Amino acid sequence: MSVIETESLTKRYPKVTALDRLTVDIGPGVTGLVGANGAGKSTLIKILLGLAPATEGTARVLGKDSATEGGAIRERVGYMPEHDCLPPDVSATEFVVHMARMSGLPRTAARERTADTLRHVGLYEERYRPMGGYSTGMKQRVKLAQALVHDPRLVLLDEPTNGLDPAGRDEMLGLIRRIHTDFGISVLVTSHLLGELERTSDHIVVVDGGRLLRSQTTASFTEATASLAIEVTDSDAHPDGTGALTAALADRGFAVTAGAGHLVHVEAADEAVYDAVRDAIADLGLGLIRMEQRRHRIAEVFQDAPDAPRAQDTPHALAGQEAAT
Ligand SMILES: Nc1ncnc2c1ncn2[C@@H]1O[C@H](COP(=O)(O)OP(=O)(O)OP(=O)(O)O)[C@@H](O)[C@H]1O
Question: Checking DSSP bridges between strand 203-208 and strand 211-217, what pairing results, if any?
Answer without folding.
Answer: antiparallel
